[in-house]
Write a structure and sequence with these properties.
Strand order of the largest sheet: 6-7-8-3-9-10-12-11
Number of domains: 1
CATH class: Alpha Beta
Strand content: 15-25%
Shape: globular
Structural class: alpha/beta
Order of helices and strands: EHEEHEEHEHHHHEHEHEEHHEEH
Helix content: 25-40%
Largest sheet: 8 strands, mixed
Radius of gyration: 22 Å
Length: 335
């Protein structure tokens, strides 16, 4: 009997809320009877997520839905307000600081704006080589050779290692960000809109680099994007996120062929298509609600054309509607 391999990374009922405390004026007003309370943003709401070794998981949603926050929670940059985060079956919160720091090296993040995430006062050699030296993965005498191998792997000229970030193009900076993430030998990369700011031709080159690195280094990706074409090209499985919740999860081919949740259907209908005939786009109607005051029940019900009375009261559960295809919609119960 084969042994069950635990997921590489697992989030269970992960929740993230950002609270803005009252300022001095508001606290003073409370003393005189003013009804003021701290503002709380419900960024991620009870999300359960598993990422298995070698898998590319795409995470899609509108701006403000919480996908970048979820990515930072997966990478360990944001602490969970509640829920658990596990690495290879081990709860990271149960480890001591030294053990958690060591495990954390296996999860690295690539940011949307590589220029903003690169220290403008450091040369590329030092940016890429700083972490492996600090974590004693390489000796100081081997740092130069180690960095040159990384730059060569991501397609950068070794003669550029002494330059500063402002001396590179956007595509080159993206490659520098990838090299920096690879410098500590990670197993999982969280890519937050990693190709969104690039020209189409450069975007294709960087995507092909991600695929090449996955095969060469046996990497696993959580790939966050708003571009459905990119997600369809690179992902094995796609998660659709709306206002802090996962509303649909499915293998890529199944999701694009048979979307179930009304929000997923609306997203795919609004995606540009290369067709000769005139195309009419169907955007999702209405604005995404404020995470300060999310709607009750199903968060999508104020914008859903199929909303029923129960949708505003009862939160739908993410349930399996086909093999490995999950959706959170009350329409599945009705049918």
């Amino acid at each position: 009997m084969s042994e069950i391999v635990p997921p590489l990374l697992a989030l269970r009922d992960a929740d993230k809320r950002f609270a803005k405390p009252l300022d001095a004026g508001a606290r003073l007003g409370q003393l005189f009877g003013a009804k003021r309370s701290a503002e709380v943003v419900h960024a991620v709401d009870q999300v359960t997520l598993e990422i298995h070794p070698g898998e590319v998981v795409g995470l899609v949603g509108e701006s403000g839905c919480g996908k970048s926050t979820l990515g930072r929670m997966a990478a360990g940059l944001h602490a969970l307000s509640s829920g658990t985060r596990s690495w290879k079956g081990t709860d990271l919160a149960a480890l001591n600081a030294a053990q958690r720091r060591q495990q954390q090296l296996a999860i690295q993040m690539i940011f949307q704006d590589p220029y903003a995430s690169l220290n403008p006062r450091m040369r590329i050699h030092d940016i890429v080589g700083e972490a492996p030296l600090a974590h004693r993965m390489v000796a100081a005498a081997q740092q130069k050779e180690y960095v040159e191998a990384l730059l060569q792997r991501v397609g950068l000229d070794l003669a550029l290692a002494r330059r500063f970030p402002h001396q590179f193009s956007g595509g080159q900076r993206a490659r520098i960000g990838i090299a920096r993430a690879l410098a500590v030998n990670p197993e999982l990369l969280v890519c937050d809109e990693a190709v969104a700011a690039l020209d189409v031709s450069i975007q294709a080159q960087v995507l092909n680099l991600f695929i090449k690195l996955r095969d060469e280094l046996n990497l696993t990706y959580l790939f966050i994007s708003h571009d459905l074409g990119v997600v369809r090209h690179i992902s094995d499985r796609v998660l659709i996120m709306y206002l802090g919740r996962i509303v649909e999860s499915s293998p890529t081919a199944e999701l694009f062929a048979r979307p179930n949740h009304p929000y997923t259907v609306a997203l795919l209908a609004a995606a540009p298509k290369l067709e000769v005939k005139k195309i009419e786009f169907y955007p999702v109607k209405g604005e995404i609600p404020s995470p300060l005051h999310p709607p009750s029940g199903c968060h999508f019900h104020p914008r859903c054309p199929h909303a029923m009375p129960r949708c505003s009261i009862e939160q739908p559960l993410l349930q399996e509607i086909a093999p490995q295809h999950f959706s959170a919609c009350h329409l599945n119960d009705e049918s």
